[in-house]
Write a structure and sequence with these properties.
Blueprint (H helix, E strand, L loop, with lengths): L8 E5 L5 E2 L8 E2 L3 H14 L3 E4 L8 H9 L6 E6 L6 H14 L4 E5 L5 H6 L6 H21 L1 E5 L4 E6 L12 E3 L4 H10 L2 E5 L3 H16 L6 E10 L3 H11 L5 H14 L3 H8 L9 E3 L2 E2 L12 E4 L1 H13 L2 E7 L3 H16 L15 E3 L9 E3 L4
Parallel strand pairs: 1-4, 1-15, 4-5, 5-6, 6-9, 9-10, 10-11, 11-14, 11-15
Antiparallel strand pairs: 2-3, 7-8, 12-13, 13-14, 16-17
Helix pairs in contact: 1-12, 2-3, 3-5, 5-6, 6-7, 11-12
Length: 389
């Protein structure tokens, strides 16, 4: 008899470039208002998510600053903060990380983003070819980790020169906050095997995910290391499969062919990311081939860069698909849905019970034991039912 898999570590997403109800439309869109992002973080904190991913990029609010803002309004929530080596020195980023870990009382996680757009990186002053960016990142994190773990670092490298660097205050977490990373190229997989604690893949079909997991495991084992694994996915969960697929259709119901072509053209011209190319290859910009694996829908990737797939279905269906990924070694999920505030509730209320994750309804007593049903919120309260009725 096989034992049930351990519960997934389930994180949510902070849409720091904006949010909305329809992809490719301004109808009911929401700007990156700090007050709205705070609502999402507070909701995720009380709904049972272990943390939130905060992305990095020219279109996003600055990740460390935003995490510090949101940490003040949350209690348990961890912050998977994107860090892009090359946009600042490792010593400066070490000070940011140590301070954020201290002011959040040990709630910092770090997501390494080496970068998939040469054009955006050039704007940040980074002009290295694709594979060399990983050589640079290797030197960067040699100094960065030494500072966080020991308080000092020194390197006279090809890309990084840090002479007798010092860090004044250690992070709360020892030896340092965990490092997460995702990348699909050979250089990225080699980098992951030698450095990171958790490797994240975007939501590809299980067979493709299995290949990446095996490659990272091999790269880590060659260095005497082991790595944990996670997956970045969107979710469209409804009470029935039919309702979920209808919601997926609605999400792209206002998306024009012109918007799809414009987005795909940007991906082709500006991105040298192998992962982005793999996302595009799942659908090639076509609306008629979006279910790329059972319940794995690539409609989001028609216009969204990066993670472009969603699991679609009822709670039982989606939980079954997640267990397939768990069987491959995935133990962390970084999730999102549109709009992120409402979908945080849907995923927690519908999917968490199927996954054995605790949701708020199990964290606080709502009666003295009588069975009650929601009575509409009137002054008389809920409707009490006799036992067994």
């Amino acid at each position: 008899m096989t034992s049930a898999p351990k519960p997934l570590d389930f994180l949510w997403f902070i849409p720091s470039s904006g949010d909305g109800r329809y992809l490719g439309s301004d109808d009911q869109s929401r700007p990156a208002d700090p007050a709205y992002l705070k609502e999402i973080a507070v909701a995720a904190d009380r709904l049972g998510y272990s943390g939130v991913l905060i992305p990095v990029g020219v279109a996003c609010e600055e990740s460390f600053v935003l995490a510090g803002h949101l940490a003040a309004y949350t209690e348990k929530l961890k912050f998977l903060v994107a860090i892009r080596p090359g946009t600042a020195s490792p010593a400066y980023y070490a000070r940011l990380a140590a301070t954020l870990d201290r002011v959040s009382n040990g709630r910092l996680l770090l997501n390494i983003v080496v970068g998939g757009s040469a054009q955006e990186l050039a704007g940040d002053g980074v002009f290295l070819p694709h594979d060399e960016r990983y050589d640079h990142a290797q030197e960067f994190f040699q100094v960065f980790n030494d500072l966080l773990e020991k308080g000092h670092g020194h390197l006279d490298g090809k890309y990084i020169k840090a002479h007798d660097a010092r860090l004044g205050f250690p992070p709360v977490q020892a030896p340092r906050p965990p490092l997460y990373f995702g990348g699909s190229s050979d250089a990225a997989i080699d980098f992951a095997g030698g450095l990171v604690d958790t490797y994240l893949t975007w939501g590809e079909p299980p067979a493709q995910v299995a290949e990446k997991v095996a490659a990272v495991r091999k790269a880590a084992a060659a260095r005497g290391r082991s790595v944990n694994f996670g997956i970045r996915l969107h979710f469209i969960v409804r009470e029935t499969d039919e309702a979920a697929w209808a919601a997926a259709d609605e999400l792209i119901s206002k998306l024009s062919d012109e918007a799809i072509e414009a987005a795909q053209d940007v991906f082709r011209k500006q991105s040298d990311s192998v992962g982005q190319a793999r996302m595009v290859a799942l659908h090639n910009g076509r609306r008629d081939r979006l279910e790329v694996s059972p319940n794995l829908w690539a409609g989001i990737g028609l216009v969204r860069s990066g993670a472009g797939t969603a699991l679609v279905g009822s709670p039982k269906t989606v939980a079954a698909r997640l267990r397939e990924y768990q069987a491959l070694g995935i133990d962390t999920v970084v999730a999102s849905g549109y709009p992120h505030l409402e979908e945080a509730y849907r995923v927690s209320e519908l999917l968490f019970p199927e996954l054995g994750l605790e949701s708020p309804r199990h964290q606080i007593r709502h009666s003295f034991g009588e069975r009650q049903v929601f009575g509409g919120g009137g002054h008389g309260g809920n409707v009490k039912l006799a036992s067994g009725s």
